[in-house]
Write a structure and sequence with these properties.
mainly beta, Jelly Rolls, six-stranded antiparallel beta sheet, 2 helices, 13 strands, about 10% helix, globular, disordered N terminus, disordered C terminus
Length: about 230
Amino acid sequence: MKTLKFLAISAMVVIALSLGIQSNSHAISVYLEDLLTGDNVQVDAAPGIVFFNGAVGLNWTANVTTGISYPILGDQNSAHMDLNTINVTSAGPGSLLVKLSEVNYNINSLVDAFLPFQLGVGGTTNGTVTFEAWADDWNILFYVNEIDLFGELGPYGPGAFSFTANGGGIFNPSDPGGGLYSLTIMATITHTEAGQVSSFDAELTGGKVPEPISLILLGSGLLGLAGLKKRFKK
């Protein structure tokens, strides 16, 4: 299933590149950092897709890291992001942070609204991998804050893994994002010795149909919702 998905995404990438996707005032970005030394790499790309292949400091090497978003996957009204990392190796123990971020998704509401999201991950590792997903209604690239965290999975490994989490958040269209929000997927890979390898795919979807807060409270009998995290102004 993962192979078929990869082939399908690869086909969409080839088509998008051949058509010459035009900028829409946004650029998907991927960021990798060795958490032990602070060595880091950030790659900003044209809308829709970003690639990285190479070393991060002296300890980490990523064979292929690919990030995909709109207009190849989803659109500004229906979020769909995919972070795929293949054969990340280390020369010794440590942790590597991998983040994918995109801006300018639409809240599509004139009042505070709850947007649902789903984070699905799968892969294999000789160490461990932890995943987090963030949504920010200030529409800032790579912005991560505890109140913007809506999904956590892991740590997983060693071995193969495949899991899904559902979550969401309350978005305020009057925040500086002006009715727009950003999404960030973050993975932390930890290896305990040289030669260990990790590969994974993380897919984030949702945000399509906003639900007014008043309807959520009514449907829940005016009680707190499980998994609903109140978003406060920063």
